[in-house]
């Protein structure tokens, strides 16, 4: 910047620049620097409004000319917003990638954060097989707001749970989970379940949204000698 013709200064000696002149010189240098690295035609945040001013859609600022806008792009505010936008896009890209991988890999499920809407209604009935004399239970659960998912069940022994302490080895738990409902557990006898069809089955009524679980316990003889070679299970099988 030429200082020799400044008012109040000697010829060839220069002079003290005012703050406004210094800022103007800084903006000019930033504009020239930005012209080397930025193409306004390809800048996604550059916008010319109806009154002829220039706007930055990222920072929501208005500039009177392109030089002011280019100087703004080299400032701290614009650079900080660019870094925030890049971090946000990277985070969203990872989330979309995880969803895509979950869709391509059926065995991998993406965890979803759903709002639980309460516990399902249920009814438990004691049953008994008239032929084998096996005792069992019939569970009937109501899921009126169930859409697109199927309830899942799991048997859990007393030492896996953390609700009742100390654990009681005489009982086990039947856990039923179905989003968006809260998981529910039933405390049943710690006896071996007869998983032979039709002694054990689950069924979901798609119309009434009722989920049925029917199970029979093995008899004492089957529990004791069921794995012994040569001994047939007691009672007739259907």
UniProtKB/TrEMBL annotation:
GO biological process: spliceosomal complex assembly
Domain of life: Eukaryota
Region (Disordered): 1-25
Keyword Zinc-finger applies: yes
Boundaries of every Matrin-type domain copy: 54-84
Gene3D superfamilies membership: 2.60.40.2690
UniProt GO cellular component terms: catalytic step 2 spliceosome; U2 snRNP; U2-type prespliceosome
Main location, first listed in the record: nucleus
InterPro entries: Matrin/U1-C_Znf_C2H2 (IPR000690), Matrin/U1-like-C_Znf_C2H2 (IPR003604), SF3A2 (IPR052092), SF3A2_dom (IPR031781), Znf_C2H2_sf (IPR036236), Znf_C2H2_type (IPR013087)
Alphabetical keyword list: Metal-binding, mRNA processing, mRNA splicing, Nucleus, Spliceosome, Zinc, Zinc-finger
Molecular function terms, GO-annotated: nucleic acid binding; zinc ion binding
Compartment(s): Nucleus
Coiled-coil stretches noted in the UniProt entry, renumbered to this chain: none
PANTHER family according to UniProt: SPLICING FACTOR 3A SUBUNIT 2
Similarity annotation: Belongs to the SF3A2 family.
Official protein name in the record: Putative splicing factor 3a subunit 2
Organism: Aulographum hederae CBS 113979
């Amino acid at each position: 910047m030429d200082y020799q013709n400044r008012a109040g200064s000697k010829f060839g000696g220069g002079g003290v620049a005012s703050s406004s002149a210094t800022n103007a010189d800084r903006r000019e240098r930033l504009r020239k620097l930005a012209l080397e690295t930025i193409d306004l035609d390809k800048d996604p945040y550059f916008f010319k409004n109806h009154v002829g001013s220039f706007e930055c859609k990222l920072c929501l600022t208005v500039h009177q000319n392109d030089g002011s806008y280019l100087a703004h792009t080299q400032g701290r505010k614009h650079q900080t917003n660019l870094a925030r936008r890049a971090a946000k896009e990277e985070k969203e890209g990872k989330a979309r990638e995880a969803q895509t991988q979950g869709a391509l890999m059926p065995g991998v499920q993406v965890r979803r954060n759903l709002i639980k809407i309460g516990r399902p209604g249920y009814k438990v009935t004691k049953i008994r097989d008239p032929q084998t004399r096996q005792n069992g239970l019939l569970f009937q659960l109501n899921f009126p707001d169930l859409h697109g998912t199927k309830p899942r069940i799991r048997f859990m022994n007393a030492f896996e749970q953390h609700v009742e302490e100390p654990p009681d080895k005489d009982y086990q738990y039947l856990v039923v989970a179905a989003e968006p409902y809260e998981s529910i557990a039933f405390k049943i006898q710690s006896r071996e379940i007869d998983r032979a069809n039709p002694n054990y089955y689950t069924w979901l009524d798609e119309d009434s949204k009722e989920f049925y679980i029917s199970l029979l316990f093995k008899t004492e003889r089957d529990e004791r000698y069921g794995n012994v070679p040569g001994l047939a299970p007691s009672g007739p099988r259907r």
